[in-house]
């Protein structure tokens, strides 16, 4: 990608703040834009503001100068943070969140150039100096984020998402595998949880899949955050074989390093799925209410997304009225097994 140094806007951007106050997968999907900004504006200071718990996605990212986390405590602490943001003197703020809180933060910075999205046409659009109008949901989020670049006079490159790892991350992952007796075995990583119940494949189906893989000689390792232990325990209750559980036992980058060592990752549309794809692991993603054409993982050609394409607008939240005919229930164990075996046969 070329840097358009003759653009008045790009010349004025030496201290940039990018805001993404969403979840782990959302932050992973911002990394191509961060790289494009770094290539296009190589001397700019690039700060990223994220929610607590997502910052490790960017811990070793070479394109980022500084990572900040938005506090979620007292009003006084938030006001102090707002002041600290303002005194940093940002000359450009790019808000990728499309939310009221982030729009207010964008305005509070006092930056002369404030770029944001306002797909709902709400009053928060007035907090931006440049409001991007785009057909949200009609393009992948990588392309949606890249709409920022022409505003700055930069051309689009949009490579794959990345989650860089350190040697220490790999060492911790290797020790975990050795402690589980998996250092010299082929194994499958399974993430059975999801942020919302209606985005999750049934635990008994994950159990049947796991039993089938173990019968073929592969071990299955369940992963997830500590609060996802009940889901993993339910999978184990339905399984006839013993599964290895590392749920709650890994930090985010430990998990990412483990993904570089597993044969295939299987999981719902959630943060771990996007991390797995970003580190080059073959992934089988299970999609229901969210469309992989918009929210799917990116990171190479070893990605299989199973999606039935049902219109979920009528029941997306708080629940689904379709019962056994729901989008997630329409994904069969045989389909998922077939997708996993395709990668295993390729020797991925």
Write structural notes for this entry.
- The chain has helices at 8-12, 24-28, 31-40, 75-86, 100-108, 141-146, 148-151, 167-180, 203-215, 229-238, 252-259, 271-278, 292-295, 333-345; strands at residues 15-20, 45-50, 66-69, 92-95, 113-117, 130-132, 187-191, 219-222, 244-245, 264-268, 283-287, 303-307.
- It is of the alpha/beta class and 348 residues long.
- The protein has two domains: 8-151, Glycogen Phosphorylase B (Rossmann fold); 167-345, 3-Layer(aba) Sandwich (Rossmann fold), CATH 3.40.50.2000.
Helix coverage percent: 25-40%
CATH architecture verdict of the largest domain: 3-Layer(aba) Sandwich
What general outline do the C-alpha atoms trace? elongated
Strand portion, in percent?
15-25%
Element-by-element helix/strand order: HEHHEEHEHEEHHHEHEHEHEHEHEH
Give the termini separation: 31 Å
Number of domains: 2
- Output mean pLDDT: 91
Number of helices: 14
Q: Oligomeric status of the shown chains?
A: single chain
The largest sheet, given as strand count, sense and whether it forms a barrel, is:
6 strands, parallel
CATH fold description of the largest domain: Rossmann fold
Low-confidence stretches: 1-6
CATH class of the largest domain: Alpha Beta
In brief:
The protein has helices at residues 8-12, 24-28, 31-40, 75-86, 100-108, 141-146, 148-151, 167-180, 203-215, 229-238, 252-259, 271-278, 292-295, 333-345; strands at 15-20, 45-50, 66-69, 92-95, 113-117, 130-132, 187-191, 219-222, 244-245, 264-268, 283-287, 303-307. It is an alpha/beta fold and 348 residues long.
